[in-house]
């Protein structure tokens, strides 16, 4: 009994089939051809050949790459009949694939004309977050088909001019690129930039500028090596990373309300959870640490609040150091919460988060968040919260210690 041995056929064991739907459009001195790739995807295509001539084939151009499915032939004579042929090729033995022939006549000359270049499209910027300085990769698409001058050996290569600068600034810079992407460096963190691109052909002709793209260079995140303090007000977020639920609200002191500034919920906000997270903090020599935050609950709510610590860059390794049900927190009373936690060798972040189900977001206003070395004072612990009233009465929080983790 013989065993069948599978035969693996190379994708280049035969030449490609003929391109499909070959079309041609002429100007007075040029002709643009478009086509679709051969229908058989099992045969590898390495590129295409375009041949042309007056009445018969006399010129041949090789286009590398299977994705190049258009080409513009230039330097043709006006009002002249031409024949064109398009075929696909690979490295199989034999000739190129089957040629598809089309014929067309160039238009009569109408004075001196130049081919119009279209501006680049889909200009977009991508911020390089891991780079040491502010930098961005800007890329774009070129809607202009390749032509014979671009592919000839002695031709000047098509280039792109990139104009960029701080948004609405008088100072702009220009760089050139042979590729359809460029890296912009030396950008200033916290500034919004604008960028536009245009095409410069080998003969020196230029396209109009593209539609400009605007992008923001984020602030550089610095690791704090000292005690970190943040008193939230109507203009300062202290580099806190906040979910979209929050906005800065101003202080309000009148007959009905006595309230400091802080972070409070937006009118429209996404679903649970919401969080406020400190920037990276590095206090490796502190044997004992303390997180202090000051907040007030403005309406009764059955949701949950918790405080977590995690290493910078590792949100999967979270440690809960405090949590409570919002139903245990008295409303309209400023709560001063001191939470001790152990030494952190690596840079870390502290996050205050709220979670709720089936109800609107709790009306919480956060006034202050601090990270202190040396630990919390003996009288201030997470289980014995000190309350400071913003009204005529003072009060303490009814805290359920069973909700705390066993160890900090």
Measured between the Cα atoms of the first and last residue, the distance is 72 Å
Number of helices: 1
CATH fold annotation of the largest domain = Jelly Rolls
What count of domains describes the coordinates?
3
What is the count of β-strands? 28
Domain Fibronectin type-III: 15-109, 119-220
Keywords: Repeat
Protein name: Fibronectin type-III domain-containing protein
Organism: Caenorhabditis nigoni
Description:
The structure is a single chain. Helix content is 1%, strand content 42%. With 408 residues, the chain is mostly beta strands. The chain folds into three domains: 86 residues, Immunoglobulins (Immunoglobulin-like), CATH 2.60.40; 97 residues, Immunoglobulins (Immunoglobulin-like, Sandwich), CATH 2.60.40; 146 residues, Jelly Rolls (Sandwich), CATH 2.60.120.200. A five-stranded antiparallel sheet has the order 15-27-22-25-28, with no helix packed on it. Strands 16-21-26-23-24 form a five-stranded antiparallel sheet, with no helix packed on it. A four-stranded antiparallel sheet has the order 4-3-6-7, with no helix packed on it. It starts with 19 loop residues before the first strand and ends in a 19-residue tail after the last strand.
Question: Briefly, what is this?
Answer:
The chain is built from one helix and 28 strands. The chain is mainly beta.
């Amino acid at each position: 009994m013989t065993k069948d041995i599978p035969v693996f056929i190379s994708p280049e064991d035969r030449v490609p089939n003929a391109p499909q739907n070959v079309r041609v459009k002429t100007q007075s001195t040029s002709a643009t051809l478009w086509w679709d790739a051969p229908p058989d995807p099992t045969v590898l295509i390495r590129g295409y050949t375009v041949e042309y001539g007056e009445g018969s084939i006399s010129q041949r151009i090789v286009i590398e790459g299977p994705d190049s499915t258009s080409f513009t032939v230039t330097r043709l004579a006006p009002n002249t009949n031409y024949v064109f042929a398009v075929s696909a090729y690979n490295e199989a033995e034999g000739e190129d694939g089957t040629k598809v022939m089309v014929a067309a006549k160039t238009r009569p000359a109408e004075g001196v004309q130049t081919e119009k270049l279209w501006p680049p499209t889909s200009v977009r910027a991508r911020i390089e977050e891991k780079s040491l300085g502010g930098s961005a990769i800007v890329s774009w698409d070129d809607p202009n088909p390749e032509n014979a001058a671009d592919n000839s050996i002695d031709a000047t290569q098509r280039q792109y001019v990139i104009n960029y600068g701080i948004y609405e600034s008088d100072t702009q810079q220009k760089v050139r690129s042979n590729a359809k992407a460029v890296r912009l460096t030396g950008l200033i963190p916290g500034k919004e930039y604008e960028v536009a691109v245009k095409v410069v052909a080998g003969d020196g002709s230029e396209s109009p500028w593209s539609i400009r793209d605007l992008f923001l260079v984020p602030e550089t995140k610095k690791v704090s090596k000292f005690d970190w303090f943040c008193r939230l007000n109507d203009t300062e977020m202290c580099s806190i990373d906040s979910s979209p639920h929050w906005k800065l609200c101003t202080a309000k002191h009148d007959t009905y309300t006595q309230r400091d500034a802080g972070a409070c919920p937006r009118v429209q906000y996404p679903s649970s959870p919401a969080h406020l997270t400190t920037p990276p903090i590095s206090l490796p020599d502190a044997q004992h640490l303390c997180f202090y935050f000051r907040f007030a609950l403005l309406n009764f709510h059955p949701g949950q609040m918790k405080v977590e610590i995690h290493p910078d860059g590792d949100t999967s390794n979270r440690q809960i150091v405090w949590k409570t049900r919002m139903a245990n927190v008295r409303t309209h009373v400023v709560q001063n919460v001191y939470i001790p936690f152990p030494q952190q060798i690596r840079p870390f972040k502290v996050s205050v988060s709220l979670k709720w189900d089936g109800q609107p977001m709790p009306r919480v206003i956060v006034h202050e968040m601090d990270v202190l070395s040396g630990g919390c004072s003996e009288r201030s612990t997470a289980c014995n919260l000190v309350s400071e009233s913003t009204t005529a009465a003072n009060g303490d929080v009814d805290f359920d210690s069973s909700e705390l983790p066993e160890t900090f």
